[in-house]
Amino acid sequence: MASNPVTKTIEPALTVFSGAEIRVVLLPVGEAPEAAFQRYASLIVQHRQVELNNVRSFYKEAQKSPFKFFPWKTGNMHFKFLPEELALQPSPLASLHNHRRVLGVIGVMHCPNVEDVSKAYAQFEQRCKAFPDAFTVRCFAFEPSDEQIQEDRKGQRNFIMFPPGDTEQLDNHAEVVMHDFAACLLAELERWMLNASPAMVDLSTLVDSPDFAGASGALEAVQTRLYSDEELKTKKRYGRLQKAMGDHCLLAGSPLDAQDHYSTAVELGRTTQDWVYLAAALEGFASAKVLAAAITHGAFAINQSSVFNDEEQWRTPRKIPAADDARSDGSAVSEASRASSAFGGAQFWSALRGVDKLEGEVRSLFADAKATLRRRGAQPLLVESDLKLARFLAGLHGNLARREVSDIVTGLQLTAEVLPLPEDRLLTFVEGAQVLGAVGSARKRVLLLWQAVELSKFLGFPNTRTLDVARKALEPPDDPRDAESEADVWAKGRPLAQGAAPLTWPQVRAGCLEAVLGLAIYAREHADVWDAAAALLRDHASELSAHRMQSLLENLLAAASQMAAPDKNRPGPGPPPLLFFQAPRQPPLPQRPVHFNIGLQRPGNGTLTGRPGSGPFLYDPFSAKREQAAAKSLAVTTGPVQWVCGELAGVEVEVSNPSAVGMRVDKMTLEVSYLGDASMAPSEYMTITSSTQVAWKPKPVSLNIPANTKPVRIVLEGTPLLKGMLVLTGCRLTAFGGVSWFQPWSQRPPSMAQQLAYSTRRDGAGAGEGPAAPAAGGVDAGSSDAVAAPEARVFVVEPLPLVQLSLQPAEGTHGGRQDAGEGLGLLPPSAGSNVAGADGSAAAPAGPRALRLLQGQAYAGQLTITNCSKVPLGWASVSVRHKEARGRLAIAVDSAALLAQLPLPAGQSCSVPVTVSAGVRATHAAEELFSAEICVECVSQEAAGPLLQGGSDAGGRGGAAPQSVLGRHAVLPVQAHVQPSAQVVQVGFRDIWLPARQAAGSPAAAAAAAAGIAAAAPGPGSGGTTYERRCVIEASVSNRGRWPLQVWLGPALADAAQLVAAAATDALLPQVAPPAAAGLPTVGRLPPGRRCTVAYILDASHADPSSGGGGGVDASGPAAAGSGSSGLLTVPFGSSGPLPAPAPARPGATWEEQHRQLCAERLSRALALFYRVDAEEAGLADSAVGSAPLVHGEVYNGLSYHALAQLQPCALTVQLSAEPLPQPAQHAAEGAGGEQQSGSGAAGSPPLQLMSAPEPAASQQQQQQQQQQQGPSPYSRFPAFAASAGQPLSVTITVTNHGRTLPYRSSSEAGSNEAAAGGAAGEASAGPASGLELQLEAALACTPLQAGDQAEGAAGNGGSGAAAAHELTAVWAGQLWTGMHFAVKPGQTVSQRLGLCLLAPGLFQLGLQHWQCLPVLPAGPRDQHAKQQRGDRRGQPSPAQLVNTTVSVEPCYVLCT
C-alpha cells in the first residue's frame, strides 16, 4: 500500500443495488473513431440486464452448482459498464466489497480502421492484464471486410466477429453474445464458489489498518483473549469468506443464496468482533432482501422485444434503439443505458412499496451496520451507508422523504469535516447534493455543490476535477425512481445543462456558468469555455453588461481557435441567435399532396362559394388573427404537414439575437430526426435510421445578425429524401472559424408569474413528480428529448407527379392578334398580368393569359399538361370549378382525350381540347370579368396501376369500392373579359306561301292534316300546283358590341362543343331560302350599334307537340347537318342557365294563353341566334362564332293568335277555296247556295300561281319606293287563280273538327283539369272520345289587297281588319254571309258553298271575320257553367275557358282582271 497511496475510499453513485452489478470495462481496440466506438458500445450497454431464463440456453454445467436457490425462471444478472480510465482507478475497498472488482472486459474493434486484426487483438489481450480479476474477456469486431473474415483465427478464442448487416441484425446479434457472455461469467462465478477457501482471505487489508478503522478498545482486547490467535484468524477468514461468497451470489443473481452466506458471515463477525466486515455483511444482507423481494413481486420488467421471447423480433424493428440511433453524439449510450436499466422506474418502486415490512427490515439492518461501524470509527463506510439508505428512501417515497433525507445529508456534512482524505470530503459534499436533488431540494443541492466547488479550490484539486464538480451544479439531479443513468461515465463531450438551478434563480445560474467558465479557462478545457460563454450569451444576456458580453465573445473566438477538430462539432446549443419554430410550410397548391378516391367515380365539378361574412362591419381588424388561429388549429387536428419526397420544402423560423454583440453565422441548416416509415421492411428501416444524413438534404443559408435583434422571420429549406415521418428538431449552425453546434428550438421566455407558479409546484411535488419547467431561452441539452409538438412533425410521402397547366389556342387557330392585345381569344401576357400564378410555384406559369370573349361566344382552345416530375403520370381527372354561375362562363374539358394519352412519361406533354363559352345577359352592355379554375387531379403510375386493373376505365365505373390514393391537385386559374355582342330585342311571326314539298296524301300532308293545319292550298283542279302556308319567325337583333357581326337564326345547339365543331367543319351556315321566298332576310350584316332583322322559316310539323318541339325547325337547312336533331331537345348554350317551364304570376285564363306560353318556351329552346365576327373587317386573324338564345318573353310577346293557330294543334280548321262556276249550272248553284254539303270543290279548276297585288295609286307608290328598290317582299306573294271581272265564282267553306277539345269535368277536378289543360292539351291527338262538338259562328269577308301588302296584314288576326261595307258593294255581287253557323262533331268535316261575283279588278282575299267558337256542353255542365259565371270569380279560369277552341283559317286568293 506504500507504493500505491490511497487517495479515496468513497465511490460515487452507490446504491443498495450496487452489490448485484458486475463491473465490465469497455475498451476501444485499434484506432477506432470515437463516434464509431460510441455507436457500437451502445449496442452492448443497452443489455445491462439479462434474464437468467435466456442465459440458461448458453450455460454449460461442468459440475454441481453451488447455488441452492438459483432463480433460473425469474432472476436476472446485471452489468455495470465502465470506461477504461475509470476502471483503472484503484479501489482500496475491493477486498471488502467484491462488486468493486472488474470481472469482465469487452473490446470493441472497428475493422475498417484496423490494418492488422491479429496485431490489434494481441494488443487487446495485453491491455486486459491490467484487470487481473477479470473472469471473462471478449473482443467484438464490427464491419469486417471479406479478407478479414477469411483470415485464420486460431488461438483467438475470445474474438467474436459480428457479421455484416444493418443495425437491426447487429442489435439482435449483440443480445445473443451478451447472453453468452453472461453465461460464461456465471460459470466463472460458480467455479470461484466451488474453489473458495479460507486461505484465499487476506487479513491485512486496508480496513484492518488503524489509519482507516482506528485502534481497538480495551473491551475488545479482553474479548479477543478468549480465543487463540490462530483460532481467531481462522474464524475471521471463515467469516470474511462467507461475506465474499454472499457477494458472489448477489453478482450471480441468486439473492436467497446470498442471504444464507451473509447470515453466517454476520454470526462469525460478531464472534470475532470483525466489525467492518460485520457491517458490510449486514448491508449485503439488506441488499439481498431487497433483490429477493423485487424478484418475488415482479419488479423487473420483461424485455418484450427480446429475440428469445419472440423470433419475429428478428424481422421487426426495435423502436427504442432506432430512435436513439438517430443521434450521433455520446449521449446515445447514456439514453440506451437508461432505457435498459432494471433498478428504477415506476413499476420497480411500486412493487417494492407493496412488500410488507421490507422498509423496516432494511432500516434495521442499516442501523445495525452503522452502529457496528461506529465501534471502529470507519467514517468513510458510515458515509457510504448513509448515502445508500438515503437513495433507497428517495426511491420509495420521493419528495415525501425530503425531511429525513435532508437530516441525513446534514449529518454527512458534519462527518465530512473529520474525513482524513480530501477526495472523500469532496465526494461527500457532491454525493450529498445529488441525494438532495433526488427528493426535490433543488436550492439546497445547488448551494451544496457550490460549497463543493469552493472546497475543491481550497484543497487544491486540479482544475479539471473542480470543473467536473461545477458542471454538476448545472446538471439536473439523478432521480432514483427513474432508470439509473451512466451519464457521468459515457456522456463525453456533452453540453452544459441548466436544469439544476430553479428558474427563479437566474443570478445563481449565471454565477455557476461564470464559475465553469473560469475553471475551464484555467484547466484549458476549450470546449467547456465555449459552452459556458455560449450559455451566458444565449440565456443571460439581460443580466450582463455590454462590456461583459463583448468579453464573452472574445472567449468564444479564443476557444474556437484552440479547440481540436473533433471538439468543434458541438452536440448542444451554442451562442445566439435564438430560433423560434413557427410552422412547416405547406407546399403550394400545385405541389400539395391530396387524398382522393379512385376506382368508383371521377370527382365532379366544384363551385367556390366565397368567403363567409365576418360580421356587419366592412373591416374586421381581428379577422386575420382568427384565420391564423383557425389554420393552426386545423393543422393540428388534421395531422402533420405532408411534404413530397425529393422536392424542396420550407419551414418558417424566427431568428433573434438578445445579446449586445452582433453574430455572423457562416452556415445554418435545418436539422431533422427521421422516425422511419411503418410500411418499410425491417432491414430497410434500420438501415435508414442508423444514418439520418440520407433522409434529409438541407439547403444552407448565411446570416449576419446585428445586436439586440428582435425576432425576424426567415424560411429554411431542404429536400426530404426518404418517405416517412420527420421531426424538425432545430438547426445546425457554423460560425467562429468552423465551430458547428446544434441549436434546438427556443421557447418564449416565461413571465414572472409562470416562474413563481412553476417554483411552487416544484417545491410541492418535487423534481420527479412536478411538471417540467418552462425553458427560459432554449431546451436543456442535458435533458431527455421531449415528445415533439404536432406542428413540429412532417410526414414525407412518396414521389408524386407534378404537372404544369397552360391554356393555348387550338391547333389551326391564331388565338387573336397578340401584338395589339385588342383581339378576341387569348390575350398577351401583359394583358393578363393581373392574374397570379398558382401560388407562385415554380411548376405553375408566371401568369395565365386571360381571355377576351363576346357574350355567347364559344372559344376552342387546348389545355397543355406537362409532367415536370420524374414520376410517370398514371391517372388523371379534370374538373372545372366555376366561381360564378355556369351560365355566365362555362368551361368544358374533354376528359376522355386526356385518359387516352395516359400514362404520361416524365418530361412529356399532352394536349386536351377545351371549350370556353360566355353567357348572354339581356340588359348588360358593359364588359364583365368572370373567373374559373381548371383542376387536374393526378396520380403516379405506380399508385394507380393496381387500382385501375379489373376492366373498368380510369374513371372507375366498376363495381369495386373506391380506394383512397395520394396524388396532386393542379389548378389553372382562367379569367374571361366578356364584352357585349348581339342581342335579340324583338320577335315577330309572319306568313309566307311556298310550293308544297310533298304531294297530297303523303305522310307529311297526312300529319299536317291530323294536326289540324291545312298544309296546302290545293287548286280547284288536280293539275294545279299546291302551296303551303309556312310560318316565319323574325328577330330584331341589336349589336351592342364594337365588332361587326353576321347574324342569323338556326337550330339551337346543346353546348359550345357542338358549336365549335360545326364552325370547324363549316357546317354552321344560315338557312337557305327557297326560290319562292327570294328576298327573305335569313342573314343580316350588323355593324356596331346598329339593328337588323333576320328571319327563319318554321316547319309545319312543329304543330305536333309529340315531336318535342324538335320538328318545329326546318331541319332541311345546312345548320342541321352540323348540329344534329338532338340539339333541338336540349337547352341552347349561351343562355343564363337552363330554361325552366314558364311559371307566370297567375295561370293562363284560356287555353290559348296557356299554349301560347308553351309554344314560346318550345321555340326559345329550339331556336337560337348565331353570329360570326367579320374577321376581315375587324382585322382579326380568326373569326369568332357565338350564339344567343331567344328570350322567352320576347317570343311570347310576338306570338299572335294567328301564328299560334299555325304552330299549335287547333280544334277547328276552316279552309276556303274558290273556283269558277260552270255556266249551265250557275242558276242551280245560286239556288242551292245556302245549303250545306259535304263535298269539296269541283274538278277542272284553273291552276294556282303566286301573284302579287296590282300596283297602288300614285300617292301610295312613293311610300313604298324603298321596298320596291329592294325587290318584292316574299310576304306579298299569294297563291291565287285568275278570274275575269263579273265571272261567277263558287266559294266552298270546309270546317273540320279534329277532336282536340278536352271533356268538361266537375269542379272538384278543376285543379287537375288546369294541369291537364296546361300540360296535356298540347300532347298528341286524344281521339274522338275526348273531343267535344263545337259551334262556329263567323262572317265571310272579302278583302282587296294592294301592292306591298304582306301576309300578316292580309291574314288579319281573329278575323278583324276586313274591308268596310261600302267598299264591298263596289266589288261584291252575290250573297253576303254575315251569320254563318257551323256545328261540327268530333272527327267530322262540314262544308258550305256559296256563290259570288267580283266586279272590280284586283287581288282579293276570301276569309272569315268575327268568328266565335264554343263547345256544345250537355245540360248539366251547362247549368254548372252558368252558375259559376254568376258566382264569385276569384281569378281562376272556368272549365269552358280551358277547352281548345282555336280556329285555323286558311284563306283563298283570287286575282280579278
Give your account of this protein's structure.
By secondary structure, this protein is of the alpha+beta class. 33% of the residues lie in helices and 24% in strands. Strands 19, 22, 24, 25, 30, 31, 33 and 34 form an eight-stranded antiparallel beta sheet that branches. Strands 7, 10, 12, 14, 16, 17 and 18 form a seven-stranded mixed beta sheet that branches. Strands 2-3-1-4-5-6 form a six-stranded mixed beta sheet. α19 (442-459) runs antiparallel to α20 (463-472). The termini are far apart. About 17% of the residues have low confidence.
Rg, nearest Å = 54 Å
Poorly predicted parts = 314-341, 484-489, 599-616, 681-692, 765-787, 816-820, 831-846, 950-960, 998-1007, 1009-1023, 1107-1134, 1136-1145, ...
- Morphology: elongated
The helix content, as a percent range, equals: 25-40%
Mean pLDDT equals: 75
Class based on secondary structure composition and strand pairing: alpha+beta
Question: What's the SSE blueprint?
Answer:
Elements: E1 21-29, H1 34-45, E2 49-51, H2 52-55, E3 76-83, H3 84-87, E4 102-110, H4 117-128, E5 136-142, H5 146-150, E6 159-161, H6 167-195, H7 210-213, H8 218-224, H9 229-252, H10 255-272, H11 275-296, H12 319-325, H13 331-340, H14 346-353, H15 358-376, H16 379-397, H17 402-416, H18 422-438, H19 442-459, H20 463-472, H21 487-490, H22 506-523, H23 526-539, H24 546-562, E7 569-570, E8 578-584, E9 593-598, H25 623-637, E10 641-644, E11 649-657, E12 663-676, H26 682-689, E13 696-699, E14 701-705, E15 709-720, E16 724-735, E17 739-744, H27 752-769, E18 793-797, E19 803-809, E20 825-826, E21 851-854, E22 857-867, E23 873-882, E24 889-893, H28 895-900, E25 909-918, E26 928-940, H29 941-948, E27 963-979, E28 982-995, H30 1003-1010, E29 1027-1039, E30 1045-1051, H31 1056-1064, E31 1083-1086, E32 1091-1097, H32 1118-1123, H33 1151-1166, E33 1167-1173, H34 1175-1178, E34 1185-1189, H35 1192-1198, H36 1201-1207, E35 1212-1220, H37 1226-1231, E36 1236-1237, E37 1249-1251, H38 1258-1261, H39 1265-1270, E38 1278-1283, E39 1288-1297, H40 1310-1319, E40 1334-1345, ...
Parallel strand pairs: 1-3, 1-4, 4-5, 5-6, 7-17, 10-18, 21-27, 35-45, 38-46
Antiparallel strand pairs: 2-3, 8-11, 9-27, 11-15, 12-14, 12-16, 13-15, 16-17, 16-18, 19-22, 20-21, 22-25, 22-34, 23-26, 24-25, 26-27, 28-29, 29-32, 30-31, 30-33, 33-34, 35-39, 36-43, 37-38, 39-43, 40-42, 40-44, 41-43, 44-46
Helix pairs in contact: 1-13, 6-9, 9-10, 9-11, 10-11, 11-15, 12-13, 15-16, 16-17, 16-18, 17-18, 18-19, 19-20, 20-22, 22-23, 23-24, 33-35
